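B., you asked whether I could sanity-check this one before it goes into the benchmark set. Here's the sequence:
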Amino acid sequence: MAQRVQSAQEFLQDSFVPLVAALCSEEAEKVTRKNNLGFCELIKPFCRLTSEVHMRDPNNQLHIIKNLKIAVNNIITQPPQQGAIRKLLNDVVTVSQPAEGLVANVITAGDYDLNISDLSVKASVPWYSSWKDTLMGLNTSTFYSATTPWFEAYRESFLQSMPSSDHEFLNHYVACMLVVSSSEPEPVEQFLKLSQEQHQIQHSNEYSYPKWFIPNTLKYYVLLHDVSLGEEQRADSIYEEMKQRYGTQGCYLLKINSRGSNRGADEQIPDPWSQYLQKNTIQTQEPFEDGPYTVISNKNSDHFIPLDGLGNDSKVDGLSNNFKSHPLQLDHTSESGCFDGTDYVKPNSSMHESKKSNTWTPHGTCLTLTDHDRIRQFIQEFTFRGLLPHIEKTIRQLNDQLISRKGLSRSLFSATKKWFSGSKVPEKSVNELKSTSGLLYPPEAPELQIRKMADLCFLVQHYELAYNCYHTAKKDFLNDQAMLYAAGALEMAAVSAFLQPGAPRPYPAHYMDTAIQTYRDICKNMMLAERCVLLSAEVLKSQSKYSEAAALLIRLTSEDSDLRSALLLEQAAHCFINMKSPMVRKFAFHMILAGHRYSKAGQKKHALRCYCQAMQVYKGKGWSLAEDHINFTIGRQSFTLRQLDNAVSAFRHILINDSKQSAAQQGAFLREYLYVYRNVSQLSPDGPLPQLPLPYINSSATRVFFGHDRRPSEGEKQAATHISLDQEYDSEFSYQWKELEEQAVAAANKGTALSNFQPTQYCLNKYSDNSRFPLGVVEEPITVEVAFRNPLKVPLLLTDLSLLWKFQPKDYNSKNNGETKEVETSGKDMIGAEVISEFLMNSEETKMARLKLFPHQTGELHILGVVYNLGTIQSTSVLDGVDPSVVLQTGKFISNGMSVRGRQDLEIQGPRLNSTKEEKTSIKYGPDRRLDPIITEEMPLLEVFFINFPTGLLCGEIRKTYVEFMNVGKCPLTGVKVVSKRPEFFTFGGSSAILTPLSPSASEHCSAYKTVVKHSTSLYSLTSSADSSDFGVGTGCQPEVIDVPLPDSVLLPGASVQLPMWLRGPDEEGVHEINFLFYYESIRKHSKMCHRVLRHTAVICTSRSLTVRATVYRSNALEDEKGDGDNMLVFVDVENINTSEAGVKEFHIVQVSSNSKNWKLQESINLSEDKDIKLANREKGKLCLKAVRCKHSVENYTFADIVFGSEQIISSTSPCADFFFRSLYSDLKRTRSQQSVHTSQGAAKPSPDNAVRLIQKCSEVDLNIIVLWKAYVVEDNKQLILEGQHHVVLHTVGKEAFSFPQKQESSEIGLFNFFRPENTSVPARPSLDQFSSLIKTSLHYPETYNHPFHQKSLCIVPVTLLLSNCSQADVDVIIDLRHKTTSPETLEIHGSFTWLGQTQYKLQLKSQEVSSLQLKACFVHTGVYNLGTPRVFAKLSDQVTLFETSQQNSMPALIIIGNV
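And here's what the prediction gave me:
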């Protein structure tokens, strides 16, 4: 807010004061020069009266004058030149700057806090209620200095330097002081001589300047006496003579220099002159007592032109050269001569000389406080006894002349009288225009006499009389169309009306508007128009009419003066901010305009200040183009003023905002920034690297990768995929890998999971857990991926891009962990850094830069940021989608030569904490330590290559590949394990794997299976046995974790080994991603890193091959031909469901094997003569196999192979047994998971009792079928033979089993059951199938029996009933031979034969006992009969409930009775 030192009334009073000329003799000047002061300078601080003055008006009324001030100036006979005035005003504004180091005045306007002035004034919010109070407090306070002192100084200098004109008398001299020293030989003659000089200047036609108020100018004779020289009596006698000659009221004896120059300097005498004279320290922030006449000091200006016109040149030939030159002349010459005091500095002297000559110049060194009082008394005497009586007398004379001349009433206070109504128009030539300022009145014209009287009344504060006179003169001038005179009268009438005490009439602002318009448009006098604006604006601001004041100030801005326009626009801006409802945006806009005009006027500091103040409004409001313009201008102005840091900051803001500028404009901004920045860096080349604004860095997207880049695949060698920066993060996969690693660690730890387990993290990003310090390994690179974004539409070229780091070496082997001092960006023997020579970013491109560090020592590494050279390229034509290296042969981009070096820090904010109540209620963030790795000791490094690894398989296909393990680290590794969620997919083989070919070349045409040539032509099976623990599926271990059978279990540094690995295509068709995790350890145990892992994801596409279904039934024969006891029939359906996409011609079933602890396949029953079983597309084959119980139940599994080809595949060895056991485990695991889901969804089932369990076990069978096949494939005109196997697990007699997992039918979604099902325990009953399996029956009889019925009517046939107990408990059996009489049909059927003997038998069967019962059947007719009518009931011996074993579903026992 633009605060003033004075009130508007004080300012207007001091703008127009009585002018007194001073004419001094040379001796008088010498007396004052002892104090380094001229006479006018000597008395200047004392020119304001401290007491009231009384005078009488023409009506003899007493008039009181308060706080009167006079101005005493040397006589200058040349009017000031316009160029000199402009230079003076420009210098005054230049030297007046805001003081540095003061707290800014903060004004709150709405949402804005504006730093405007030099003191802290905080207006409260909302500003509607307190804005006015704050303003008034600032306006009325005496403790606040001007907030725009440059404007105050400009205005003051402007008003003082205005040349006097003929249409007004305010700046005409009213009196003249003639000063003579008492030391002159003839002082009286000297007075006479000076009087003649003054008379010649005033009345001679040779001198038109300065102007004098009236012809009879008051002459006041001053005798200056130097007390230090003595001779007081002579001075007194001369003074007495003067009084007799000039009267006591026309002369004065002024005694000064009471203090000798040789007195001690310890006496402190006030220096009231310093604030009026040029100084070497800026004191613009101090409130001055005599504001308008303060002279602003300047430490940067070469020139200072005094405002009082003091310029006593040496006299040559009387008056000829005395008053020729004016101090505002631009063409000073060394011959003109000037005093060597401090009035002004020689224009031709250098800046250093001028500063040196004016440094610490004391003033008034020969004056005491008594002398100060004498000077003050002298001014009062002059004013009281000389000046005011002269003015009073002149007013009376003018009044009398006007009355006598016009015959008017003596009363000048009658507002109703018409003044000069009959006055005639002055004589004018024909060519003069009435409507312009060309109309001139003669000096004795009554209109000018009225104006003269009005000006005199105004100067002595008789504002009411002055207003009446101005008002009357205005009418006359308007009648005569003398527009210049009329405008002057209107201007002063308005000021007089405002200054009248008691405010009898409102301020006539329209007078001022008319005067301004007349001066500007008609008279073409911008200086007078500017004076009007300056006066009227102060009046309007004092009345809080800020809007009108702003409009007035803006109206006078024009192209003819940039400085004036800038000052007025700035004041208008302050008016907008001072309104009751502050118009903040208008303030900012006009401050921008003011800054622009300041810049054109060469006022760089003021321009910069205006732009900075406006920036407070535009910043952060979305006006990006305006912000860019302001920042760009601030940057340029700051650079011009050598404020390089501010320039860099301003250009930085342009670049970091999302600019909406065109590409060309952005390029210009960037070049300016680079140019300025380079100048800054040249000033302090050894200083710290500053922060660069471009390109943007997305710190949270920074990724850190530990380890080498994996080797690419070479031919048939496929490297493990592991993990790289090219892979996208997947939280689900990340969790799967964590589970696999946890399983491997638990297996290595003897099956116990670690409570503090933390997964190995090779790639850290914003999704990973970065709360722990990551671990790096010595001599293994650390890759940091930094996400750069170029926000500009122009390309950026980064050169010599590398990481900035800090390292703290530590020895983790020693007990003390000895630390050394931190090393930053140096010490290449500790950390090696990769440098990217060129990194080009196209317009608005987001690009990743991967930078590497190579640690050579253990310790703590801290990655701080990136360092690079920022520049641009010359042409963008090669960047539009074309590889620049193709266009530029050298592969180098053509830089425009402008680049700067700097840095950007990587500061990553951790995740927000939200676990405790305190963290939930506050905003706290956890640490993110991905850039702070700990470098540990050397570790082994495993690389895995897969040789001839397929991408596509048939379902169930067996393929043999090789895996190469290579240790590229510097330590031996051991304990290699591989973990997978799909252990049924692969195997490294069991102990028998050595028999297979050891290299890929040796096994090119060999089978993946271990085979032997079958010599026997027997169809019976070949058996062998194996233990499941041999294949990693024993009890108490994790089949997912497989030990890799390395030779000696150790892999030395640089060594590699190839191991065979068999793959089996998954049973489901489609694409399968199978994850392998290789786990390994170092021989030496480390405190920081215990193990390492390597990941591999295999992608296999499987296509359909065969589907196998199998069902097992109990054979009706209780004993086979060999008497081996119990047997079963296995029906196997094999269907070719291949879609021929893989080029498969046909499948051959080469072998069916069984695997069980209790059963084994014995022979194939329905084999045709053609032993080879071929299945073309969509063909189905059915096999019937006989299975018998193993004689000795052992822990090992019994494998039985039924071979259909010429070679037997030994199913009990790798890989056949491996895949069987693994699929058995996965099937068991899947079944358990389904059961757990079912039990969790439904009610808990009650556990069956022992009786039911025994009955259920009778129907269970533990028999697994392995179908081995070959497929003939035509590929590239070559026939390949593929091998494979399918597994079927048979659990229950009579229930069909499948080789592929069946999809669970989802139960129908019904209504939600909101009630918990009641857990009612129902005793479990075995099913009918399980009942029938408890006792197995068989009838033995002749199929055909011939009987001579004609000899014997009854035919009796012996029948043997075999009963077999299938359970493990004793069973009580009841055989009932009576026929069921349920329907007539059955009676008819069964009535034809009958059983003889007992109708019911009871017996007990032991566990697995077979018993026979001899029966007799009696027939009376020939025919075919069904003997399967006996009903068998059974119950466990210790149970009560009796079950009937249904045999009706078994095959009918038919007998043919013939007649002989």
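One thing to flag: The chain is about 30% helix and 25% strand. Otherwise nothing jumped out at me.
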